[in-house]
Amino acid sequence: MEDNNFGHSLDLRKWLQTIKEQEELTEVEGADWNLEIGAISELNVKKDTNSALLFDQIPGYPKGYRVLTCSTSSPARLASILRLEGDSSHRGLVNELRGRPNEWKKAAPDYDPVYVESGPVFENIQEDEEVDLFTFPSPLWHEKDGGRYIGTGCSVVTKDLDTDWINVGTYRVMIHDKNRVGLDMVPGKHGHIQYEKYMKEGKPFPIAVVIGADPLHYLISGIEVPFGMCEYNYIGSILKEPVSVVKGELTGLPVPSSAEIVLEGWIHPGETQTEGPFGEFHGYYPAKASPAPVVEVKKVYYRNNPIIMGSPPAKPPNDYSYSKAVMRSALLFDAVEAAGVPDVEGVWAHEIGGGRMFTVISINQRYAGHSRQAGHVLSQCGVGSYLGRYSIVVDEDIDPSNLDEVMWAVSTRTDPEIDIDIIKRAMGSKNDPMNITYRYKAPFSSRAIIDACRPYDYLDEFPEVAEASKELQEKTLQKWKHLFK
After folding, report:
1. Identified catalytic residue from 23, 280, 296, 461
2. If 0-12 CB within 10 Å is exposed, 13-18 middle and 19+ buried, where does residue 441 land?
3. Structure confidence by residue, pLDDT tens digits, 106-134
């Protein structure tokens, strides 16, 4: 809880102090905005254990003008962001999150944001001719990117033309020049739906881009909140406290009162410019540079010693793939059980598939066909159907988040001839890197369901596993824990 009467200000610096005390933050001095910050961040998330990185003393910029990366890429940091206090293991996080999204959605209408008169976000203001986006050390993240991206871990605030609905979505933001940015909004996303309404009426579309706040702001703006619901309400329901916002002086759009940097301006009808290319969550550049709406930035607000929140996609594991894996795993678990699949022990949406393309479910087999049922439901339920690829079913002795165990089960408990089902013409995406090989006009793709459970009709005869029991392993780890640090 915040220690004021005006709601939660979503102050990034308070969260940074929390994770610093947890030894989850590393400060890095002297890395260049030109590729070095991106490369260091990529290598960092590939470590078995990693910390958030706060870059300072970036060449060409004043001390204190910083970039934060890897904010959501560990169990402890993700638990801190989501205000979870239990077991921060993979399975513990998934279990704690199960059912929470429905609870948050139901409670959200009770947490309208609270408007306040001012906040740290207004400590510095650039307007009109003073606007210079190169004031901030926006990284060139990868060698093949189309430009410097100030917005990766950002949140874009927009308003519906016909109603009071405020939407907060995550869309990438590329710098074109000192006062213009490209905004890539995927058709069908809520922000793009609002944008099209303004364009149809020939009216400028108001935009406020929040670049740096409590990571919960960015995390929630990047998930599927129900149509018509404001993300500020959803965030408030997680915090059990309203979000404190201020109105942008130009557009009146609400932004967190303690935001680090806010860009405010307009997209004018017909204004586009070449944007990209930029990598996607699956680790490829699926599309070439193409025209995208241009935001004319008329005002910039920023705190003293501002921090850019960076979260660039790349070959997984990437900056945000862990958070996507955990949250999608919890949603899949709930969806599979809601569809009537019993005795589910665990679900994991692996980072290597971007949280979508490689999913695993473990079950305690109860009847003939149970494993096939679990695999097909996992593959085709609402949460799992978009851009899927492989759905694997394993027994309860296999940890679905442990790729070594999963592939051991695939290697030793399957007969490819009978244990792989193929679904043709399933729901695909134009964002699929394999899309170039498909003969379909529409974005279809196929699915493989791999039944890596011991054959149900031979359960009693299947060979025993040559491994210490889970009980013996735990007892040994407790007694000899100094050997396994």
Report:
1. 280
2. exposed
3. 999 999 999 999 999 999 999 999 999 99
48 vs 74: CA distance, rounded Å: 9
> How is domain 321-483 classified at the CATH fold level?
UbiD C-terminal domain-like (3.40.1670)
Q: 52's torsion region: left (phi>0), alpha (psi -120 to 50) or beta?
A: beta
d(CA 165, CA 379): 33
Amino acid at 217: H
Does the pLDDT at position 262 exceed 60? yes
pLDDT bin (cut points 50, 70, 90) of residue 5 is: low
* Cβ count within 10 A of residue 319: 27
Please state, in angstroms and rounded to a whole number, the distance separating the CA atoms of residues 392 and 375: 6
The distance from CA 336 to its chain's CA centroid, rounded to whole angstroms, is 22
> In the chain, which residues fall in CATH 3.40.1670.10?
321-483
**280 catalytic, yes or no?**
yes
Asked whether the predicted pLDDT for residue 340 surpasses 80, the reply is yes
Q: How far is residue 362's CA from residue 333's CA, in Å, rounded to a whole number?
A: 10
- What CATH architecture is 12-309? Roll (2.30)
d(CA 423, CA 417): 15
Reported pTM: 0.91
CB 448 within 8 A of CB 389: yes
Checking if the pLDDT of 438 tops 80, the result is no
